[in-house]
Input
Amino acid sequence: MPRLGSNKPVPPRLKLTGIAAQLLVMFLMLSTLVYGDDAATPEPQSKPSEYDQLLARGEAIWKKSCVECHGENGEGVELIYEMALVGDDTVGQLTEVIEGTMPKDAAEDCVGEDAEAVAAWIHHSFYSEAARLRNRPAQIKLVHLTANQLRQSLADLYGQFGGNIPKDDKRGVLAEYFDGSNRNKDKLKVKRFDPVINFDWENDSPGDDIQSEAFFVHWRAGLKVEETGKYEIVVRSTAAFKMYFGRFGRLFIDNHVQSGDKTEFRKTMTLLAGRVYPLQIDLYQRKRKTEQPPVKVSLSWTPPHGTEEVIPNRNLVPVMPPATFALQTNLPPDDRSYGYDRGLAVDRSWDESTTLAAAEFASIVVDELWPDYQNRHKEEPNVNRARLRAFITELAEVAFRGPLSDEERQFYIDEQIAATEDDALAIQRCLLTILKSPRFLYPDLDRDRSVSQQAANRLALTLFDSLPSDTALREAVTKNELETEEQIRTMAQQMVNDYRCEGKMLEMLFEWLNLSHLGDIAKDSEKFPNFDQALVADLRASLKVTLEDAVIDSDSDFRQLFDADSVYTNRRLAEFYGDAWASPQFAIEDAEAVKANALSDPNKPARAERPPAKSAEDYFGLIPVSDFVKTEASAPYNHGILSHPYLMSGLAYSETTSPIHRGVFLIRYMLGRTLKPPNAAFTPLSPDLHPNLTTRERVNLQTGSETCQVCHAKINPLGFTLEGFDAVGRFREKEGENLVDSTGSYIDRNGENTTFNGADDLAQYLSGSEDAHRAFVHRTFQHFVKQPIAAYGPNRLDELMEKFRSENYDLRKLLVEIAVIAAQPTTSNTPASREQTSSTSSPNSAPN
Output
């Protein structure tokens, strides 16, 4: 480019004529007069800032002393130091590490300003999150359905014909009692809600005007499931019965004709969180010529990570939910290398399992959905098997998350139907091709869909782990009512109140607390008698109910998870953990039980299991079940989840506490910080070898070296704050003869050091900590969207954090905002956005 004011000719592409040329000449002359010939000469670059000089100095030290062990960009060197240098320490923390440990065997060579310079350069170049995003911008990955998304999608694909279950706060079982051994509506004597199914009528009648030797009981309910996994369903009955499950009419256990002395029936199946499964039991007591056996019946289950129990009242909804489908095919685990499930693996086991899943689904469609569809459309013409084509089209359009093209209709429907005259075989062929298609398995392959359809697809995937089968979503797509951010937000606000979204949120809280990694919790039976698996199951259930309460509460506040003024307890927990876990409700129940016994037949001996009910007649024969009672939390258990015994006992050894486990949990999961893996596994020092030391002192002794302190300087001070809770989560002030020291500290992302004096201070800090809020928001986004948040914009996490704060830390509103972000089209993985990410991530001043 020529300088302004030079005599070089103007290039042809800038040749101007007339007034424009005259104006340009005048401007050039004026600029020469005013500014001189060098007016446009680029100004000399300013001198490097102090921070730039610091980085240059650090880079020189790095290349001279560090590359040999760590690689050019901190990627690691095989057989020397293989771990990449990445993390979230401040520059100040990195400086301390370098001064104490680097270079290897010569740490004294890099101290003071040299250590600070190389720490700043490492932090700026590749170590910090901003540097990593600048060097390798996050992108939205093309992924297939995860195992849970596949299960949920097939459940909703099946359920599209039956509608959704409305929310219901009532709990229990719809019960009808008939005189006589069949369901004759003229002989209906009792109609009510039973709290649970757990009765022992002996040889009595179950109600007024009902014969004891011949009666019929009809129970119906929805089984509300909170956690995905294997459930063993157990029915015990001395009378004949039939049980239907998943659909009224789908036989699950058939004991209509009793054989021998068998009274216990078990069946295991996979159930999905956030689903309400139709449940029906018909019980028959028939007259016999021989001696009439006593009638006793119960409905129990063994949930994941639990022990067998009568299905609690809180899991029974007295409604008639629509039929649903639960896939039983085993699916391979998903990739969790980034801390959340991602559908990345495409291998033989994934291919085989998705084929088996498609075949299983096709079978249930042939047996149930197709006959229902034919019955509903029997008056319509069926020329050229039009009815079958319409049926498959409805399934295909939901599975493909949008309308079919002519080519898709030809291949997935017409060709498969034409291949066989057998409708069942035609359905199987169609569904195998549809459910194995990338259109179904890869939800992101929908860029050719309308804006509203794409938004609906992502809303369903984000909030339900599923596809858009709901009437409201599909109608909004048809009317193009999901095009604006506000329209999407309005729909998301409705969806977060669905059982499915609540189930997904509850599972997210399980992941946030890392409950799946606690494993089987066992303690030394001599030191902690009565700490058995039944107690552990109750502890887990208590924590689960606490979390569920936080999710369901319309005014849910994240901070209440640490500030809770209540606990969920039962008799077993109160007996083990003492008065702090007792409830006044227990005394009321005891009084009612005594009253019920007094009102029972005086010719029979008093039975402790007589029901606590309004009167002896209301639920005669009901065996009470100890369910959880919400009661006021007493100190020191008034710190919500933080002081819950399930968490404290899980983060401990069989005999002693483990400040290290508790510290790692706090720093990784509660505060969202990174820790490098330990150099080697080690066995904790035995208390027997150091009988006069507390656990805190033994941990300090074992982790006191400089290499250990690189991580344990962060871990130990946090873990020590929970030393007031022993290995089973009971509060203590002494360990043996020594006073417990629960003081600790934490250095946040900004380098600020906060000290604590026990769990109370820590809970208060976590409730208001920006690091804790950031960690929770980040993990919630990952769990629901299953993509990196930075791929949706370099400032998305900060924007969500601000929304979270402004909405008083409301969990449901957080989900709505996450869904709005995920549902809108994004260009964050384009080169332009990467340039923006790079410029945004580049620091203008020295970090801490």
In short: The first helix runs from residue 18 to 35. Confidence is low (pLDDT under 50) at residues 1-44, 599-617, 827-848. The first strand starts at residue 173 and ends at 179. The domain at 173-317 is CATH 3.90.182.10 (Toxin - Anthrax Protective Antigen; domain 1).
